[in-house]
Every structure is written in structure tokens, then in C-alpha cells.
Amino acid sequence: MSRYIIRRLVQALFTIFGVMLLTFVLFRVVAGDVSSAYVNSKLGAEAKRAFNEKHKLDRPGIFNLHRRLELTDNTRGASIFSIEDSGSGRITKALEIHLAPSEIEQQNENARKLVMVSRLVYNLSPKTPLDVMSSGTPLVKKPAPGRENAQLESALKMTLSDGTALTVSMNSIGNCGDLISAINSIPTNNGKLTAAITPWKPAQLFDSQFFWHLWENITFSGHSYATDQTIFDIISERGKFSLSITVPSFALGWLLAMILACLVAYYRGKGIDQITVFLAVLGMCIPYLAYMLLGQWAMFKIAPKYAAGLASPFSIYVPVMISVIAGLGWSIRFYRVIILNEINKDYVRTARAKGVPLPDILFKHVLKNCMLPILTDLISTIPFLIMGALLLEKFFGVPGLGDLFLTSITSRDVPIITGLTYFTTILYVVSLLLTDILYAVFDPRVRLK
Fold it and tell me: Helix or strand or coil: residue 129?
């Protein structure tokens, strides 16, 4: 059995990886830029860049073979290290030159080294042209009407922490190496500002959106775009509300369905069987939403303060009862078919002929031999116990994981969507493995090899 479990766990790893790859393609690649949903456009490019850096959206997609242009201020002073364009230049915007707060080196209380970096550029080298570094963004402003043929002057102005002002003309600079040489060779620089290309290390290969996507989901450390909570904190906080609905409704619904299914199967073809099957099929034909509307309408008529939300512990009983009633018809039909396959066998007829009591026949003999399909049905519902009933939570204002999942889809909160999808995948593969193990426990004919 141990070899079988190991093999299934290896298969589960590939399944989980496939799900993570699919969610990455759907929500990170196909969905495009999501920062517009969380960053006010009036705040400008800096706010959007900060959002992307915080959530690792500025990294390359799969593998990181990229480097940056790095400008290090080696001075100390009361001024703020800044870079701006002069003339018709748009270098800072085109190269996305910005302060890198994560790279500030705190040496002591009064000393610090400020670093400006450009956007990440694939295989950046001194020979890389500036237009490649800008990813096609224009390096100069459009000329005014009537001056299309005029010589446009552009320069880069840098103010260091000690107040030193450095200016570099961009007219004769065509690639990254020229820009680095021009900055480092400014006569008034004298090592105050150092320009270089950031070194590349093998560990940086996995500093990409995809591998951060994997890591944040595996460790449940991804942060919600909306609330900045981690996935672990969200599951811990909201999971109890989902369980408060699903566990009672699951247990009560299963118990009622098994009792009724055994009863109608034993009296197959008689009046009680026909009436129960008719009601079960009728219940299956009624949409789930109709149960919710009718149930909430009745509660508003009887006790309005319990009709939605969690103002009282009694409020949770309404969605529980709706869930039980809505799922009872299908469960009775399913279990009835399973039991009928056993109840007409020779050992059951022999037991009835010998006068064995009905409860003993059904619960000691028939159900034991029906456990395999029943186990499959029961364990397949485990993921839904944790994730909750999506529509039910949304409709009755229960702050569970199902409600959060729907809200995250509409608000494009990608870390929540992918994190809960990963969590559901884990529950599914564990449930399937548990089903196989229980098959071997309840049926001695089953061998796990």
C-alpha cells in the first residue's frame, strides 16, 4: 500500500502543478494588467509601479534572465536623490527609472545608500540600445507642429543627496554602455554617482511572476490586492463560517437521505416508494435559487432579523435547512439505486425468510456492501465543506470562503482566486487518495498495488 500511496502522491504533485500553471495563464497572462482595478489613475505611474513591485508583477513571466540599469548615490545629505528629464527627453519615463526602496541599504542611523533602477530588460548589456531598454516607449517628446525637422535637445538631470547637480546630454547616446560611460565620466561626478548594470546570479532565474505565483500559493502567503491579508489569514478567518453551514447540512442531509433511501428501497414498488420517488424527482426539478428565494421570503415574513447576515446564531439555520432540502431529492435517488442493487440479492432474501429484523438487514448487511459508491459520494464533498456553498453564502450574507471566491472573481483579486483554487485542488487530491484507501479498508477484495 505504501508504494501505491507514494505513486499517487507523485501524481498529485503533477496535478497541482498543472492547476497552478493553468491559473497562472488564465489570471496573470490572459487577464492582462489588473493594477487599474486597484490603483487610481490620478495617482500616476509611480503608484502603479509601486503596486506592481509590491505584488511581484514587474518581474518577467517565467524565467528571469533580466537585469537593470542601476544608479547608486554614494553621497549623504539632506536633499532627495532625484532624476528628471530636461528639454524634449522622456528617458526617465521610457526606461522607468525610479527609486528602489527594497534596495536601500541602511548602514547606520544616519547613513544610507539610495539606488535608482530602470525597468527589467532581458539580457541587458552595454550594447543594448536605449529603444530596446524602453520597450518601444518614445525616448523624446513629439515635436511641436511645424518643428518636425528641428534638432531636439534632451538631457538627464540628476540631483544627489548632498545637493550636487549632474547633467548628461542624451543626444549622442544610443545604447546602455554609452549612458553608463557618460554618467560616470561627468567632470563634477568624482564617484558621487555610480552607474552600472546589475549583476545576474543563478538564484535570480526563479525571481519571476510564475515562481512567485507558485511560492505564494504553496505557502499561502499571497496577499489580497483589496485587503492585503494573506491567504492563510483569510482561510483561518472565513473558513469557520463556511464550515458552520456545510458540516451541519452535510451530516443532516446524508442521514435523512440514507434513512429514506433504505426505507423506499426495502418497500420497492409500494405506495411509500412511489410517493417518495415522486417528491424526490420534483425536488430535483426545482432550481436551487428558488429554494433560496422561498426560504428567505418565509424568514422575512416570520422573523426578519434572522433572514440574512449573522446578527444571531439562529440565522445560520436558515441556509442549513435550505441546503438540506435542496439536496435531499438527488441524494435519495442516488442511494436508492445503490441499495436496490444489493437488496434483491440472495443473502437479503434469505435473511428476510429467516425473519431477521428490518434494521439489521439494512444497516448491518446491505449498507456494508454498498459502502464503496457511498464513500465515493461522501468524500467527493469534502472540498465543498471547506469552500462552502458559493451562492448560499452570497445570498444570505455569510462571510465565508464561497462568498469571498465570488467577490474576488468580480473584483479581479487574483491572489485570492488562485490561492483558493490551489486550496481546493489540495482537498480534492487528498480526498481521492483517502477514497482509494477506504476502498481497501471496507472491501477485502480491493488491493492497492
Answer: strand
Among left, alpha and beta (phi > 0; psi -120 to 50; other), residue 229 is beta
Of the chain, the end-to-end C-alpha distance in Å amounts to 6
In one-letter notation, the amino acid at residue 181 is S
Mean local confidence (pLDDT), 334-341: 83
Q: What residue type is assigned to position 34 of the chain? A: V
Alpha helix (H) residue ranges in 55-147: 91-94, 130-133
Element (H, E) at 401: helix 401-411
Kindly give the residue spans of alpha helices, DSSP state H, lying in 303-400.
317-343, 346-353, 358-360, 367-369, 371-379, 382-387, 390-396
CATH superfamily of 231-442: MetI-like (1.10.3720.10)
Residue ranges covered by each domain of the chain: 66-143+153-199, 231-442
pLDDT of residue 108: 41
Backbone angles phi, psi at 154, to 5 degrees: -140, 145
pLDDT of 135 reads 83
Q: What is the pLDDT of residue 22?
A: 92
Q: For 194-221, how does the pLDDT look when each residue is reduced to its tens digit (9 = 90+)?
A: 999 988 888 889 989 999 999 999 999 8
Cell of 199: 549583476
Instruction: For 55-77, write each residue's pLDDT tens digit.
Output: 888 888 889 999 999 999 888 88
CA–CA dist 186, 156 (Å, integer): 12
Element (H, E) at 154: strand 154-159
